[in-house]
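Contributing new records

If you add data, match the layout below exactly. Sequence lines come first and carry their own label; structure lines follow with theirs. Keep one chain per record. Anything else will be rejected by the validation script.
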Amino acid sequence: MSLKITTKFKQWQTYRSDLRVFPDTAEGKFDDIQDKLRDYRVALAGIKHKPGDLDDAIYSSYLKIDGQILMLNQETNRRPLIINTRKRLEDLWLSWKDLLEQQSSLLNTLDTAPEEVKTYNDLQIQSEQDEIEQHKREKQLKEIESLRNSLDLAIKHIEKHGINGSNGSGGSEIIVFGESQPQWLTQLDLSTDPASLSLQGTEQVLDQYYRLREIIREAPVMAKAIKSLEEKYCQLKDTHESLMSLGKPLIQEEELARLAVMLYEQIPDLWTSGDFNQLDEMIERIDKSISYYQAEFDEILSVERVRRPGITNVLTLYPEERLTAYEDLILFARNLVSAVDARDRYMQGHSEMVTKYALDIARNLNWNQTELEQLELAGLLHDVGKLNVPEDILTKTGPLTTKEWSVIQIHPQQSAKIIRPVKRLYKIVPWVLYHQERWDGKGYPDHLTKKDIPLGSSIIALAEAYTAMTTRMPNRSALSKEEALENIKRESGKQFNPEVAEAFLDVLELSF
């Protein structure tokens, strides 16, 4: 009996001794928990995905421990430990022991939590990325299938109907679609199943399909341009031979041979390779050379007409029955302008007048023939975007509302959008797009300033402003030429490019 009492007394002493230490131990561990909890919160910063179960478990355990510390401290300090029974001390001791174990468990959890959160976040992000890539891949595969079908149809159509000509090459004698098609198709590995490729692989296949589609789409326009170039070259060669017979050679034989090599060797090679960017550059180079010699011929012809009136019957560089690609484009432009004029009765003939003044300015600035042709097209087409403007806005006689004015201001982008798909017009797209910009940056659509505005745009802008000033409108009278001239002088360096304004003032003053 005495041994049992002694044992219980020792337990009572042990409990009392531990209970003096447990509160401080628990407080120390709670401080460690708070420090690690701050580290955990820092680890969560920038984390897109966090495991909800882990986060809930950590904060639930933290709040439970916080509450238990407060409760156990109150229970332990309610009365001196020395007057507590062994049973009561044992209950307190077990409660503190459980609390300390919970704290240790939470500390272990907080030690590994940042890495767990990072791993979970990385897995979720990777899963999202995989889902995005899978969606993108599925979209690409559908797009590839659609492109395959459209290319098959386009090729079959060209094979059956040709490109504006019986041999499928726009009537050209130096290019043949049937011979080019296999070469273009070798750029695609049609035997490869896109579904077996990686995402990057399908992107590459898609790029190849787009490139081939552009080749097929541009082929009719390029074939027509080549056909026109052939005609120009043949006409130039005939003229050269005629001039030779009159003792007035126009071109050195070496130069004629160089043009022949470019036309009959390099052009077919570029056509067959599908390198239409270089092909377009080559066409332009040859066209510029021919245009230069054409100008030389015109000068010789004008002199010879005076000396020998019958010479026109011998030398004919431009047979009336042949239309050049440029003349076709002019016809196309005037048809569009007619459609605009039909919708805006107050501005009928506007584009033609703008074009006339623009060409006067450009000639005064010594633009060459090719540049003048491009400017003529830009002048005619600068307002075709008004086809997309409601007619009630175009013909409104009163002031425009803010909303109506914003609709009008979109017309340069609409004009550029209409002409951009035409390959031979790509050089004038910026001229058309920016013809409402001002030298001082207060224009639209992009508020360009000074030399950032293409010179062609600045020329059209001034020609259009002068045309508008001198045109009578329902809500105002037309200005006289003198008044318009003064306006241009006043706005030079503000609204208008000073160089363009000076050139136009010269033109206007000469016409007075």
